Amino acid sequence: MQRAHGCARAAQGRRDAGLAIAPPGARCETARMSGTPTLPITLLIIARNEASAIARCLDSVPFAAEKLVIDSGSTDGTQEVSQRHGARVVHQDWLGFGPQRNFASSQASHDWILVLDADEALSPELAHELRERLPQLMQSTMAGAILRRQTWYMGAPMRWYRPMVGERMGRLYHRGRARWTDVRVHESLRFEGPTPTLEHPFIHLNNPTLVHKQLKTLRYAELKARDWLDRGKPVNMWLTPFVYLSAFIKDYFLRLAFLDGWRGFIVSQTAASYAAYKRMRYYEMRRNPESRDRAADLLHGYGLDP
Predict the structure, then answer these.
(1) What is the Cα–Cα distance from 145 to 153, expressed in whole angstroms?
(2) Which of 36-40, 154-158, 256-260 is predicted least confidently?
(3) Which residue from 14, 175, 240, 254 lies 20 to 30 Å from 103 (Cα-Cα)?
(4) Which residues are CB-contacts of 242 (< 8 A; sequence separation ≥ 6)?
């Protein structure tokens, strides 16, 4: 009876957050695992306006002794949803992806940290693997571990496109032995020590629609262009057509996107467009400095932090 009530509470939490209930068989995984002891690790999420997704992420890691959400000003109830699902919420104005993650690491109660984005979640298989391997890993001198990410795109998992099938990512680390790069976007985790690779993947529910993807592309391009501006990167606009073409060929053919049908074509075209657009936007920032603040104001109007 207690297990049934636990499943009901988990289901209600997902409905409160506007989420689909997990498929049968996985539905009560959180309730079953919640009776096991927690491990001294912090689940860390940086978020803004992620109320529709963050509950699933938080519920997928029931063994974490602490769940910490660093919120940069949500207006959709992300903070309340996070708290209902067991998280401590800390506000921090947006610093850029790398600095925001490093700030988040400093706020954790435990040295060992697992980082997920709000639109990601552990698979039941990876959650089980982590519970089995973490005690030994945390006793070792390892700097962390590499996780694999499986991406769902347009409602189904990608099967062939390499960046979305088994992508290797540093997401588990000891904060004294690893640090995020201090860049506004496309940050990465730099380890100071060995890092084993775990077997099972975590799940990434990529942008709900192409509209969401385009908004994210605009934001990421803005952040990347500002990084280039800080470094004084040469513009080299003449390269842009070749960058677009090479990016499309690389993704569509060399990374096997064509085997995923029209979804593969769309993801390749989107990636190539982003590669070209961020260079065009950088050119505009250099040529017309007023465009920086005007674009920032527009993005803020959509709830995006440039």
Answers:
(1) 25
(2) 36-40
(3) 14
(4) none
